[in-house]
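Subgroup meeting minutes
Present: P.N., E.W., G.H.
Scribe: E.W.

1. P.N. recapped why we're keeping a running log of single-chain structure predictions: easier to compare across weeks, and new members can see raw inputs and outputs side by side.
2. G.H. added today's entry (862 aa).
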Amino acid sequence: MMSFLGRIWPAVLMVCGGLLLGAAGTACAAAVVERIDLSGPPGQVRIGLSTRADYKVLTLGDRELMVAFNGAHLSGRVEKNGGAPHLVTRVRIERLPDRVVAMRFSTEVDIAHVHSAWEAQQPVLILHIATVSAPSQDMIPSKRPKFSKGDRRMPPAAAPAVMPTVSDAATSPPAAVPQVAAQRREVSDDVSGSGSSETPSPVLVPGPAAGVNMSPAPSQGVGGLDGLLDVMADGPCGHDSEVLAEALAMSRKGWWKKVFDLAAAHLDPTGTADCQAELYYLRAYAGFKMNRAGQSRLYLDAVNYFQGALSYFPDVPYTPYGMVALGRVYASLDNMVEAAGYLGIVLKTYPTHAICAEARYALGKLYAQEGKREKAIALFREFLQLHPQSPHLPAVQRELGKTLYAADAFAEALTMLRKSLEADPGSIYTDPELLVAIGNLEYHLGNTDGARRALLKAVNLFPEGASVPVLMSRVADTLREDGASEKAMKLYDLVMADHPGTDGFAISAMRRAAFLPEPADRAAAYRQVIDQFPDHPMAKLALVKTADLQMQAGGYAAAIDTLRDTVAGGVKDLKNEAVYLMEAALEGYFAELQAAGANMAVIAAYEKNKTLMRRVGNPKLFEMAGAAFFREHLYPQAVDVLEKAFGLSSPAGRSSALYYQLGVALQETRKIQQAKEIFFSYFNRIPPADIVPDAYLRMGRMLGDEGAQDQAFRFLKAGYLQTEDKVAKADMLCAQARLHIKAGVPDAVPPLVIKAINLLADAEQEGKRLTQAYRMLGDAYLQGEAYEQAVDAFSMALKYDPTLRPPELLYQLAEAQLKARKPDAAKAVLSEIVAGGDDFWARMARERLDTIAMEQRLAGAS
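Output recorded in log:
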């Protein structure tokens, strides 16, 4: 059966001529795996080959990893070098088909992350195994082998298994840093690149060694990467090693290629020669400087050089310099995760080291470039507090000022930029953005004179800059705000004449339009900007201004159409202004239609613009649209729209009409529980004088239907007292009468209904309302066995019924007549029902006539 590795290999590693590998790809030359070295630090594995080969590293489980080499085979006997305690507890080697060699390493503790890299210029693959928890203490070696008696450098000591991540450095402020002497060299502040700086996986890079003094030497000054050379020069090797002395002398002259070649020529792979740590780090630093000088060597080589130095010598005084250099190199490679990781490790692990000044500055710039302003500002503030003597100070003040500006902290930003300029007056000649930022900040803070001076100086110093037209437009803005309108107009004209097609042209055209007295001329100027710069933010502003002109002329519908696309997208600030105008245009349009009683037109406008209305989020617009649905008795739609208005508004901002209309619409759509809740809020929040009497009636009816008689009576009686409208009072009385009928108290009904009938008569109400009142009165009389009065009541109901003697009412009258012992009158009414032609009631009337005839025959026979 094929092994596990044989089965998964095609998914993780492609053969020569196929796809590129995830690890560093090499040519498809035959490679021989010769040795595995576990004699170094507990998390380091060194695999030696005859030549480099394509490889892949995978974690197979919590405590197992695999390294597979493609196009390789095993030597007759693979040398395994170990003996010291190590994370790796077992090594298994397997030869797979297609010239694949796989190695499986088992560890004592769980693996968090594995970092792999080729040793510089050597076919040695170095694995750094980072663990979830620290290894047992007996794994940490007390000494390292292979140092000659003549080696004068500090011996390395124990190192922790896992280095803290950048998140630790970002959250834990360093300890106080003592005052140190001035730095002897200028350090470049260049940190380039952009990308993510999320917390990286743990990296196996050791911290300061126990018993080794990692504090900066006096000659090291206030920190910087070139301080690495000072530390080397002041150390034993700087005095005793002719090779190192020569290399350092060439470094001071900037002969980095010669330095690199000299250091590389004297590296001893066995680690037994003198001053190897210095040579490894010096070679890496020379490679870094050559790349920065524009040589063809890739920055990735510098990564390998420094990682090789850190792997061989992880706990020497040069370690923090190497990690800061790696942070800078990774930033140049746009790998912000690794860059921030290394810089953060330095701040966490070496909090009092002088190199922290550069690490803090570089990490702050990374955060600023990524838009993580709060983190950047915090690091820059720490820098100002902890490194007041740093030569980076003006640059940090400048970066902090720019970051504060981006965060809209204008006053503090301006103060910081002024301090930077005072400390480094020459920066205005090298940083085109400095004067521009100061000028814009002065303008934002209302100092138009200061803004004008700074911006004009920026234009004069950098007359060919792409931002000149915009700066001249801003200068014209300062003149306009100072009341020098004529000068401002001339400057806008000058920008438009000299810089067509630029941002400055678009801005000047918009500003100039504001001076034109005639709306038609302003509209034409806005149209010019819209046509010539359709994708420019000024075109959005021109659309907003055009809509404003249309609104002022009463063209609400036209303004809505003009703003439609701007509200749907575009620049945030302009979009906000467009939303404000859209809100006003929709309100004006709906109010205009509402005043004309054009409910259906309001409904049509809502259907057309409801997406925009949701973006605007104005509850008043939804209330007006919902009211149109309500007045047209389109209650389901009214519920939907009025509920949007209700949800968008605060309790204090809800009108009495909104409560009432939503409550009615809910009741009419049989959502009784919701309707009651709205009406309860209505009565609790709205002054009695603003409550519609119909609300009392509806509340009483809903409560009565649920059997809450006492509450129902309270609402109906309160409504009766609340209104002076006779029809409304009559409705309240009839509703109370129905409650009595439902409760089986017919004697209480007639006084209420008679009072209601009198009110309706006084209000000259005829037809349906009076018919219903008289029918209710007749029913009450029937229940109370007052048959004569019932006949009179039903007769009056027929008088007022507009449907011309409905059969069901006639049938009630006939029943009352029979009970009042008026059979002849009853037969006449029943015969009228039969002649009416209604099938159901005609059948009922015939059956009743037959019954009467039978009763009369029986009575005659007796």
